[in-house]
Write a structure and sequence with these properties.
single chain, alpha/beta, Aspartate Aminotransferase, domain 1, seven-stranded mixed beta sheet, 14 helices, about 40% helix, globular, transaminase activity, aminotransferase, EC 2.6.1.-, PyrdxlP-dep_Trfase, Aminotransferase
Length: about 400
């Protein structure tokens, strides 16, 4: 007899490729010469604004300073005010549930809006944790492919994926791993599809707008949230991205203020009880107290743009097809020769570690994190160019240097 539940078995199977890759990268952690472009982890000391904000809140000011916390009112007020400015929508503090990062916000959204056996449409390629999280929640992931050329949201593909059991659609902008930022026109087209499908199937379809990279955008590109186009939207957010501190868990789930009043009030009253029910999913006290100060703290976007341009330009010069990111801190490209695993293995043999697209069900593509330092990027460029040239030559039948060997 199996020890694990069926949902645990499905969740584990859905994330095994990620955990195996993570273990492989962890094995290189002590190698001082390893050049790591895999996960979006910091490669330099924490932002001074982050440590100052936390240090200012560590000393207790009352006996209940470290008591159980739900959503602290000042944190809710700060988030609502920020959202009013960013999204030009009339958010109120009661629309906000503070959570343990975007993971916690998504878990809360799934518990709040979906029943066991409901279908949830997710983007492909998309974040590799959607599927295991849904299985763990007894929900059924349904994949909808992005446009294969531009990686735009394919509203037609979402429409075709909708069925009578569809309850949620997850959309992610700026998108991981592709770096695309979707337009207001795209959201309006999706809103029209979801409204019509909700009427056809006699059941409201909700939209979960996954926005942890909302403040990480390049070239002055505007951000539009679907919450302005489709009232039945909830937004999840994580401070871990803009602060480049994913280990400090702080995020929120926000209800669109356009949700009709009766349903909005019902959901508001459920945010705290459901936060408790999913495992006390509220952030730690110090992180919540720090929210007002952290609203204005950000990684250096100018430096991130320079790193994007440096790596993007070098890959293009090497003949690699790369999507120019409009947001996030990732580069998404097509592996030379079309074999991402081979490309990443050849680079790993030279001490350069890149994430293969197999983690995103895209065996021809790869992802590189721009959180690496500029020095790391510059050191990796010769190996990237040589491996790309060798694999391209092999694919075309020509000869070239062996891709898995370092050359002087």
């Amino acid at each position: 007899m199996a020890a694990m539940s069926d949902r645990a078995t499905r969740a584990k199977a859905a994330v095994d490729v990620v955990t195996a890759f993570f273990a492989r990268i962890q094995a290189t952690a002590d190698d001082p010469d390893a050049l790591d472009f895999t996960f979006g982890n910091p490669h330099e000391l924490a932002l001074p604004g982050l440590t100052a904000a936390m240090q200012a809140q560590v000393e207790p000011r009352s006996v209940d300073w470290f008591a159980y916390k739900t959503s602290e009112r000042l944190a809710q007020e700060t988030v609502a005010a920020g959202l009013r400015t960013e999204l030009a929508l009339d958010f109120e503090p009661d629309d906000i549930a503070m959570t343990q990062g975007a993971f916690g916000a998504l878990s809360l959204a799934f518990a709040l809006l979906a029943d066991a056996g409901d279908e949830v449409i997710i983007p492909v390629p998309g974040w590799f944790c959607y599927e295991p999280m849904l299985h763990a929640a007894n929900l059924l992931p349904v994949r909808a492919a992005l446009d294969p050329e531009t990686f735009d949201l394919d509203v037609g593909a979402i429409s075709r994926a909708i069925g009578p059991r569809t309850r949620l659609v997850v959309a992610n902008s700026p998108a991981n791993p592709t770096g695309r930022v979707y337009s207001q026109d795209t959201w309006q087209a999706l809103a029209d599809v979801l409204e019509q499908a909700s009427r056809t199937h006699g059941r409201r379809i909700w939209l979960v707008s996954d926005e942890p990279y909302r403040r990480i955008r390049f070239d002055g590109i505007d951000f539009a949230s679907p919450a302005a186009s489709y009232p039945w939207t909830v937004i999840d957010y994580s401070y871990g991205k803009v602060l480049l501190a994913p280990g400090q868990r702080l995020g929120y789930l926000a209800l669109s203020p356009l949700i009709p009043p009766a349903e909005r009030d019902e959901l508001r009253t459920a945010l705290m009880p459901l936060g408790l029910a999913i495992g006390w999913g509220f952030p730690d006290a110090v992180m919540q107290y720090s929210v007002p100060a952290l609203e204005s703290v950000s990684l250096d976007m100018a430096e991130l743009a320079r790193k994007r341009d440096r790596l993007f330009g070098a890959l293009v010069d090497a003949g690699v097809r790369v999507t120019r990111p409009e947001g996030t801190f990732y580069l998404w490209g097509e592996a030379p020769g079309g074999d991402a695993a081979g490309f990443c293995d050849a680079l790993a043999a030279r001490g350069v570690h890149v994430m293969p697209g197999t983690l995103f069900d895209q065996p021809r593509h790869f992802r590189m994190s721009l959180t690496a330092t500029m020095e790391t990027i510059d050191r990796a460029l010769p190996d990237l160019a040589e491996v790309a040239a060798a694999l391209s030559a092999t694919a075309s039948g020509a000869s070239g240097p062996e891709p898995g060997r370092r050359h002087p």
